[in-house]
Amino acid sequence: MGNATAATAALLVVALIVIVICLCAIVQIVGTAKVCKKLDEPAWGAVVPFYATWCVVAPTGGQTLAIASIACSVGGLVLPCVPFLTGLAVACYIASFVLGIVTSYRLAQAFDRGIPFTIGLVLLPCVFMCILGFGSDEPVDDLWEEESDEEEPHELDEE
Asked: Where are the domains of the chain?
C-alpha cells in the first residue's frame, strides 16, 4: 500500500506542476496579445509561436534581431536531430538565450522601462508581459524608428 500512495502523491504533484505551467502559458499569451495590440500588431499573433516573436520584437526596431532570434530557435529545435551538429545546437541555445535578454531589454526600453523591468521580463515573462499589456504604459514612438545615415534634404531658400 505504501508504494501506491507514494505513486499517487507523485502523480498529483506532476499534475499540479503541469496545470501551473499551462496557466502561466495562457497568462503570458494574453499579456503578449495585449502588448501586440499596443505595438499596432495583430493580437492573434501572440498565439502563433514564431510570429509572436516577430510581433513583439520587430516593432521595437529589431527586425534583424527578430530574424536572428527565430533562426536560433529553429536551429535549436532542428540541429539536435543531426548527430554531428549537436554542438551547433548548443550554440543556438546559448545565442537564443542571449537574444532573449536583448529582446527583453528592447521591449522594456520601448515602453520606457529600465534594467530592473528587463530582468523581470527575463525571469517572469508571464507576469511582466501582463504588466506591459494591461498597464497604462504606451510605447515610446520615436524610440524604435530606424535611424538612417542619410540626412534629410533641406529645402533651399530662394531669394
From this structure: 2-143
